[in-house]
């Protein structure tokens, strides 16, 4: 499904270089669940952003269904993300002036194919059929994250990338969000990659990869 080879990411800070990723090789099969586990600052989010084509590597490649996403133009990569990749972040990134249904439908605007029924179906799938006309300020943190998950699914992605999706939630709410993600993986056969520092969450994935100081480790 997705394969990274030799991924490096270096940031410049004045005359200094900060090497965040130091040559990452990673392969994830279709419909697999993978947890990227590591402490803060290990490079987890940077790696996830590169896998999703949100940022460019200093060197290396990311193959998605056999195509190197970094050989594509910005417009081509944006279309690829919109059609094949869903993102769920720690901060929900909902538009406050839009209600839940409108936020879910946002990615469809780029395609020019707004399907209200699809949005309603997804809000029902995440248990928010009774909150679809509420704006983010009227929803709890867990409800906002469920809206964000529904939004990530509206274009039927093959790959779902989640960056600390329970980081702003209490334990019980976080558990319900993780349970929902596993359920969606089983039902929709999506490849699921979750960045986390929580060993309990990581332990539920089929594969766990540790990252420390920009390198993949075995412990």
Cα radius of gyration in angstroms: 17 Å
How much is the average pLDDT?
89
Structural class by sheet pairing and helices:
alpha/beta
Strand order of the largest sheet: 6-7-8-3-9-10
SS elements, strand count:
10
Order of H and E elements: EEEHEEHEHHHEHEHEE
Low-confidence stretches: none
The N- and C-terminal alpha carbons lie at a distance of: 25 Å
Write structural notes for this entry.
The protein has about 220 residues and is an alpha/beta fold. It contains 7 helices and 10 strands. The strands form 2 sheets. A 6-stranded mixed β-sheet has the order 6-7-8-3-9-10, with helices on both faces. A 4-stranded antiparallel β-sheet has the order 2-1-4-5, covered by helices on one side.
In short:
The chain has helices at about 45-50, 75-85, 100-110, 115-125, 140-155, 170-190, 200; strands at about 1-15, 15-30, 35, 60-65, 65-70, 85-90, 160-165, 190-195, 205-210, 215.
Chain-wise SSE layout:
Elements lengths: L1 E12 L2 E13 L4 E5 L6 H8 L7 E6 L2 E2 L5 H11 E4 L11 H12 L4 H10 L15 H13 L5 E5 L7 H18 L2 E6 L2 H4 L4 E6 L2 E3 L2
Parallel strand pairs: 3-8, 3-9, 6-7, 7-8
Antiparallel strand pairs: 1-2, 1-4, 4-5, 9-10
Q: Descriptors for this entry?
A:
single chain; 219 residues; alpha/beta; six-stranded mixed beta sheet; four-stranded antiparallel beta sheet
